[in-house]
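Figure S7 source data.
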Amino acid sequence: MKAGVFDSGIGGLSVLKSIVDARLFNEIIYYGDTARVPYGTKDKDTIIRFSLEALDFFNKHNIDILIVACNTASAYALKDMQKISKIPVIGVVEPGILALSNNVQDKNKNILIIATKATIKSKAYETKLLKLGYKNIQSLQTGLFVSAIEEGITSGEVLDSIIRFYFKEQQIPDAIILGCTHFPLIQDEIKRYFDNKPLLIHSGDAIVQYLIKKHDIKAQSNIPKIKYFASSNKKFIEDIAKKWL
Ligand code: DGL
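Tokens for the predicted D-glutamic acid complex:
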């Protein structure tokens, strides 16, 4: 089975890693829209337009399933993509919600959602969590993490000061939804800031469980063949992928 994995940049590699580790496909096409990252600062129409253009790109590669490994695109463009696509298109929001509700049964626990400005504005996570009965939800835009990660900054003093800037008013939450696929790349730093206490929900792990349970996709014995594409600077994606995968 051949899958497509789409993100605005390198963040989707965190999802790709989970999918590769779980050996869910024998071929994967990764596409990062690095020429136009970040999506999280753009408006709804632009995010939908970019995502539909990505769908066009994947249509040329004969994939069997498309994974939108970008929360921002999943929050705004998933329905439009599904409407015109002939193959299944899976986003990361629903799997993330499912992963949280499987791991946090007590609806009074403090849940912190961190994501891009656009994802937070969409309330994609918040609305679904409220519907499930969670009472203590906080949402926080942390878009600067995306720029830092795209710059290759995943530890050190710059990242520490961004973490302090965003979290200085925060109590330690019981769970954090990493509502942007870039964030798993700095998850150890985030967790450490909160004394390693919160449970972190990661889109990659969530989507693997979702694909197995809801789409009946089974592990293969071989390591998948992966091809990388980018709208700019493909080598950067390949270099980061080599490091992380
Ligand atoms: N990795 C993306 C997400 O999950 C998008 C980051 C961005 O392009 O702003 O939201």
